[in-house]
Specification:
The complex is a heterodimer.
Chain A: E1 3-12, E2 15-25, E3 29-34, H1 41-48, E4 56-61, E5 64-66, H2 71-77, E6 79-82, H3 94-99, E7 105-106, E8 109-110, H4 112-124, H5 141-155, E9 159-163, H6 171-186, E10 190-194, H7 198-204, E11 207-212, E12 215-221, H8 227-235, E13 255-264, E14 268-276, E15 280-284, H9 291-298, E16 306-311, E17 314-315, H10 321-326, E18 329-332, H11 336-340, H12 347-359, H13 367-380, H14 397-411, E19 415-419, H15 427-442, E20 446-450, H16 454-460, E21 463-468, E22 471-477, H17 483-491, H18 498-501
Parallel strand pairs in A: 3-10, 3-11, 6-9, 9-10, 15-20, 15-21, 18-19, 19-20
Antiparallel strand pairs in A: 1-2, 1-4, 4-5, 7-8, 11-12, 13-14, 13-16, 16-17, 21-22
Helix pairs in contact in A: 5-6, 12-13, 12-14
Chain B: H1 2-25, E1 33-35, E2 38-40, H2 42-49, H3 51-65, H4 73-89, H5 94-118, H6 123-142, E3 147-148, H7 152-159, E4 161-162, E5 165-166, H8 167-185, H9 188-197, H10 199-204, H11 209-235, E6 237-238, H12 247-257, H13 269-288, H14 296-311, H15 316-331, H16 337-340
Antiparallel strand pairs in B: 1-2, 3-6, 4-5
Helix pairs in contact in B: 1-13, 2-8, 2-13, 3-8, 3-11, 3-12, 3-13, 4-5, 4-6, 4-11, 5-6, 5-11, 7-11, 12-13, 13-14
The chains are: A alpha/beta, B mainly alpha.
Organism (chain B): Paracoccus thiocyanatus
Protein name (chain B): Monosaccharide ABC transporter membrane protein, CUT2 family
InterPro entries (chain B): ABC_transp_permease
């Protein structure tokens, strides 16, 4: 074994994040590490890369015990890490990024030509030929991710940890990154792969280790494992069937909202759309097809330049988020860290923020009422926390998403837009959020759900609107809501995703 | 209340330590005497002299909580002092003069707020404009002279006594208390913090961040107007060039000593005004302790540095460790297993 971890233990105040976890990694193997949020994946990785000090257990690399104190030391020992958010410098060139900190020098001055040549040679191993003088930021996220991998491998070269490397990539980009990873496996590296996407785990990994609540529950060869068994390992309970079936096809809905000719130059072409009470509208399409832009337009974030919105009572003002909120709209945005949570405020404050903003500053919500609301939503949405006064920034991604949802539910909008409500969320929270969507519509709330996961859209939507090239190109209902039909509409005559064409040499 | 005490503990400890230090050099520092209907002594002097910086720090705390900064408050003090002195000299009466000065402060704050919140200019640059321009405006109002006046009512604001304490002391205590009360008894405090931490997310949640930001700069302008009135009334004259000169920096320092992050978010007005008291204690203490005046600025800088270093987040784990070890040492006889694990 290349890397062996025995009885790794790490305790935080109040919780045992890792409880005697064993893990091993062979050379030339991709070993997937799976688990719900809070299962201990990131803690394990941080102990391995020296970001955390472990409280107990042993880590052995190539037969010798190691105890890295910092990520730099881990790197020197041979353990490199690539994170979900590319941790390189986008405004330096590709060559500078690859060679950062170990530039070829003569008399203290950087030898630029040698640096470029070395950088090009490094990339050639990955089948990439890039202009190494261009700023890294001008390349797609996939290319940046591969550059990050190349840098990590060059610096460490024995163990490569990929922490959710594909979370912000589209399908073609994922393939690109995976080809690179397979190449590295063939070269004998041991690769630890953390991902929420089960398809990718089955596609790429040789073995799977599942963590739950800080303990290891299973390590198995991927090909001996089926999907349901894996999900059972992760959840420790049967995945509820409700979330797997298509939404009950219900009859026509009493109309509620009607959008006519809504559009904005450079964002989304004018479209018509109707929403019924309690209806779930799905928005399908590739990244950059105008899904998020549609949401921003309806919520007044980038208001429409043309068209009208109206309900039974008359025209609606959707010119700003505040106006949209007054019209009974809500938006749980895609990027919850920058647009959703207020990290330094507590869970309670985050949940009451929207309600309070609508009431106005002069009419504060009584503290007892705030507490009641917070406790209520923590229970109803199963937000995992030690208490309502915890900073939201300290919660895991899925729980942060639930806090943002709770903020909107507390405001009780009639039309709630959910942009990628389950992105970056583990299977358990995923199922809970889908169940929540069902409950909300039963109460008459209409939803617009944007998702990259077609299965998810099919599971929740009454109707699916397909976008392509910033245009609403198709609307599917009833039996037509099926993967094949949606794919067809997305693919129709559209060009391949822009990012896939770029640089995939 | 326990939470508030925990929040203020570092500032209170620093203040107590300073008072102790000054007393060691100048034992009469703690002397208080009551005569002629008023309390007097070095500590009362600290309370009085701290007024301009404490008033500025009250407004500055809010601006900094929104992740902003207001460099113009010193210049606003000069403008408001000039306005009040001119109005008094022109014979418009005290109430009109005070209202005009406050109005000028609010207008100056509105200017800053619009530049920052509506036009999206960086607060540092936006308020630098008025910092530069403000003294020019004040000079135009006073026509380039130091405008003196003899209105007893106005002078009372700077050097009078009420209920045994100097009027400026009452003024800053009342202002800070009123601000703290309004912010914490309404939802304003939380909305300001939310806007400072994440303006975009707050806006998406329906917080009217633009109006809130403008209001915060207007509040800072009003505080600066009060500070300007105190300074002008104290010397019975409006000095466009020197009134409030560099005080914006002391105000920012007071906020920082108060443990408020320049990155915005959580704030405490009480901690900021204690910060102002700390600065004033240092200033007066150095003089009373009898150091040659050329050492004043250096000693002040060193003391501030020590306070900030002791408060730095890098040292926080050390304090925690120190406290935990103390607690562990105390509990060891009771809990023998603790160490074995």
């Amino acid at each position: 074994m290349l890397l062996t971890i025995r009885s790794l233990t790490k305790t935080f105040p109040g919780t045992k994040a890792l409880d005697a976890v064993d893990f091993d990694l062979a050379a030339g193997e991709v070993h997937a590490l799976l688990g719900e949020n809070g299962a201990g994946k990131s803690t394990l990785i941080k102990c391995l890369t020296g970001a955390y000090r472990r409280d107990g257990g042993a880590i052995t690399l190539e037969g010798a015990g190691i105890d890295p104190q910092s990520t730099v030391e881990a790197q020197e020992l041979g353990i490199g890490t690539v994170y979900q958010e590319v941790n390189l410098l986008p405004n330096l060139t590709v060559a500078q990024n690859l060679m950062f900190g170990r530039e070829p020098r003569r008399w203290g001055l950087i030898r630029n030509r040698a640096m470029r040549a070395q950088a090009r040679a490094m990339l050639r191993d990955y089948g990439l030929s890039l202009d190494v003088d261009r700023d890294l930021g001008s390349y797609s996220v996939a290319i940046q991710q591969i550059v990050a991998i190349a840098r990590a491998v060059a610096l460490s070269g024995k163990v490569l940890i990929l922490d959710e490397p594909t979370a912000s990539l589209d399908a073609a980009e994922v393939r690109m990154v995976f080809d690179v990873v397979r190449g590295l496996r063939a070269r004998g590296l041991g690769i630890v792969f953390v991902s929420h996407f089960l398809d990718q785990v089955f596609d790429l990994s040789d073995r799977v280790t599942v963590l739950r609540n800080g303990r290891r529950v299973a390590t198995e060869r991927t090909r001996d494992l089926d999907r349901v068994a894996l999900i059972e390992h992760m959840l420790g309970r049967e995945l509820e069937a409700a979330t797997q079936e298509p939404a009950a096809r219900r009859g026509p809905r009493p109309p509620m909202l009607r959008f006519a000719g809504m559009g904005r130059r450079g964002a989304v072409q004018p479209f018509d759309m109707q929403v019924g009470q309690g209806e779930v509208l799905g928005l399908a399409g590739l990244l950059g097809s105008g899904r998020t832009e549609t949401a921003e337009l309806l919520f007044g974030l980038k208001p429409a330049q043309t068209g009208r919105a109206r309900d039974q009572g008359g025209a609606l003002d959707l010119s700003t988020p505040r106006a949209a909120i007054a019209a009974g709209f809500g938006l749980a945005p895609e990027d919850r860290k920058t647009d959703g949570i207020v990290a330094d405020l507590t869970i309670r404050e985050n949940i009451v923020l929207g309600l309070q903003a609508r009431r106005g500053w002069a009419r504060p919500i009584a503290r007892a009422e705030q507490n009641r609301l917070a406790e209520d939503y923590i229970r109803r949405l199963d937000i995992r926390t030690t208490g309502r006064e915890k900073r939201v920034g300290e919660l895991s991604g899925g729980n942060q998403q639930k806090v943002v949802l709770a903020r909107w539910l507390a405001m009780n909008p009639r039309f709630l837009i959910l942009d990628e409500p389950t992105r970056g969320i583990d299977v358990g929270a995923h199922a809970e959020i889908l169940r929540l969507i069902h409950d909300l519509t039963a109460q008459g709330m209409a939803l617009l759900v944007i998702s990259s996961e077609i299965d998810e859209l099919i599971a929740v939507s009454d109707r699916v609107i397909v976008l392509r090239d910033r245009r609403h190109v198709a609307e599917l209902a009833g039996e037509d809501i099926a993967p094949a039909r949606i794919m067809q509409a997305i693919a129709a005559t559209g060009p391949a995703p822009a990012a896939a064409a770029q640089g995939a040499a | 209340m326990a939470g508030l005490m925990r929040r203020l503990a570092p500032q209170l400890v620093a203040l107590a330590a300073l008072v102790g230090l000054v007393t060691a050099f100048y034992p009469a520092f703690l002397d208080l005497s009551f005569g002629g209907g008023r309390l007097s002594g070095p500590l009362v002097d600290v309370l009085k002299r701290a007024a301009p910086v404490a008033l500025l720090a009250t407004g500055m705390t809010l601006v900094i909580a929104t992740r902003g900064i207001d460099l113009s408050v010193g210049a606003i003090m000069a403008i408001c002092g000039a306005v009040a002195a001119t109005a008094i000299t022109a014979g418009w009466g005290l109430p009109a003069a005070l209202l005009l000065a406050l109005g000028a402060g609010a207008a100056a704050g509105l200017w800053n707020g619009v530049l920052v919140a509506v036009l999206g200019i960086q607060p540092f640059v936006a308020t630098l404009i008025l910092m530069t321009m403000g003294r020019g405006i004040a000079q135009l109002i006073t026509e380039g002279r130091i405008m003196t006046f003899t209105d007893a009512g106005f002078a009372w604001i700077g050097s009078g006594t009420a209920l045994g304490l100097p009027v400026p002391a009452w003024l800053w205590i009342a202002t800070a208390a009123a601000f703290a009360l309004v912010l914490r008894r309404t939802a304003l405090g939380m909305l300001v913090e939310a806007t400072g931490i994440n303006r975009r997310a707050s806006g998406l949640a329906g917080v009217n961040a633009t109006v809130l930001l403008v209001a915060v700069y207007v509040a800072a302008g009003l505080c600066a107007a009060l500070a300007g009135l105190v300074v002008t009334a104290d010397i019975r004259g409006a000095d466009a060039n020197n009134a409030g000169l560099w005080l914006e920096l002391d105000a920012i320092l007071a906020v920082v000593i108060g443990g408020n992050s320049l990155l915005g978010g959580r704030f405490s007005i009480a901690a900021s005004v204690i910060g102002a008291l700390i600065i004033q204690t240092i200033t007066i203490g150095i003089r009373l302790a009898g150091f040659p005046s050329e050492y004043n600025l250096i000693i002040k800088a060193v003391l501030v540095l020590v306070i900030l270093v002791l408060q730095s987040p890098r040292l926080a784990p050390e304090w925690q460790f120190w406290r935990d070890s103390l607690r562990a040492a105390r509990n060891r006889p009771a809990d023998g297993k603790g160490a074995a694990k």
